[in-house]
Amino acid sequence: MTPNDKKALALHKKLGGKIRIVPAQPVKNRSDLALVYTPGVAAVSNYVAKNPQEAREYTMKGRTIAIVSDGSAVLGLGNIGALGALPVMEGKAALFKTFADVDAVPIVLDTQDADEIVETIIRIAPAFGGINLEDIAAPKCFDIERRLIEALDIPVMHDDQHGTAIVVLAGLINAMKVVKKDLNKSLITVSGVGSAGVATMRLIKKFAPKVKILAVDSTGIVWRGRTDLNETKQQLINDSIIFAEGGGDLAAALVQADVFIGVSKPGVLKLAMIRKMNPDPIIFAMANPTPEIMPEEAQKAGARIVATGRSDYPNQINNSLAFPGIFRGALDNRVTKITERMKLKAAEAIAKLVRKPTVKEIVPDMFDKRVAKAVAKVIK
Q1: Distance linking the first and last C-alpha atoms of the chain
Q2: Which of 145, 264, 338, 377 could form a disulfide with 191 if both were Cys (CB 3.0 to 4.6 A apart)?
Q3: What is the CATH number of domain 159-380?
Q4: pLDDT digit of tens for each residue in the chain (380 aa)?
Q5: Which stretch of DSSP H or E encloses residue 140?
Q6: Catalytic: which of 92, 205, 233, 345?
Q7: How far apart (Å, rounded) are the C-alpha atoms in residues 288 and 214?
């Protein structure tokens, strides 16, 4: 256990969780009580019941989202269940409030059945202005998100997919400026074909239709000749998101590649693999907390730009650059669906905040107060 681990445990025990419920209107006397509760609240309830379209103005719905997880894919810890997921959801709620003044309620479900998850979220949805899905394992997460988007009239986003994709694309836009390469003429190798990997590949392809992408899972390159592909991987081939004409391992996939994007597991990227890449290779090693390769090692092998998910190195690719502003904009502009166009605009908005990208700065700092506002502006 690291010193930081010990501090985190001590802090959480002291606080008893990171979230508090604080009334917007303090109840100090009987007059206040008569307005926020009985008898005054009856008038509000009747009004909202008759005018449901105005619920956002009269209730928390207009400023609150639900953060929902089943605990099946928590950080790099795996399937640790609902209670194991709760501290992460609390932390995310704290970030929503800190970075974008969005109220968020952490909700962890004691089920990992897709049908039950969908049904539960649909039933609680009236209280919220948006649903942030979190730490739900692939490929189940794709089906859950799709069904909820179709069923609800409020925005639904699985942040492990799209938050990651948006920030990766933002970093990639600026990294390409630094190395003076054209993304449409580049080869990208993605290690990891789970929720984050799939969404990232799709968004990059949307931004740069001519880019060549190779996807690598635990078996090797995802290609047409394999008979073990699930529906999600097969769809990547069918939709021409990935180049899938031949097999091989990660080492083979990195020969003459311009970019490595890792959303897989620690230690899979070796120095020898980087040395086989094209000049000025870009390495996004985002497995957390231990990346596919440590930055010092990647640089030793010749990497020009290295990004990770960690806060103790430059170029932190972190979802918190995206999700607070996305839901801030969605609430403010009454967006019912987060579209691909919005995701692309969000990535571009984040990238533009770094006016002169460098090897050590391709994305803004997490505490840059401009970020959430810039992202919120394009969610409409």
Answers
A1: 44
A2: 264
A3: 3.40.50.720
A4: 888 888 988 989 898 999 998 999 999 999 999 999 999 999 999 999 999 999 999 999 999 999 999 999 888 788 999 999 999 999 999 999 999 999 999 999 999 999 999 999 999 999 999 999 999 998 899 999 999 999 999 999 999 899 999 999 999 999 999 999 999 999 999 999 999 999 999 999 999 999 999 999 999 999 999 999 999 999 999 999 999 999 999 999 999 999 999 999 999 999 999 999 999 999 999 998 889 999 999 999 999 999 999 988 999 999 999 999 999 999 999 999 999 999 999 999 999 999 999 999 999 999 999 999 999 999 99
A5: helix 140-151
A6: 92
A7: 22
Asked whether the CA dihedral 200, 341, 71, 143 is positive or negative, the reply is negative
Q: Is this model's pTM higher than 0.85 or not? A: yes
Domain boundaries defined on the chain: 18-58, 61-154, 159-380
Same fold, 61-154 and 159-380: yes
Contact 189, 157 (CB under 8 A): no
Q: Is 58 known to be catalytic? A: no
Q: Which of 297, 290, 354 is nearest to 321 (CA)?
A: 354
**From the candidates 6, 7, 37, 380, which is the catalytic residue?**
37
47 a catalytic residue: no
The CATH code that applies to domain 61-154 is: 3.40.50.10380
Give 233's Cβ-side CA count (13 Å radius).
24
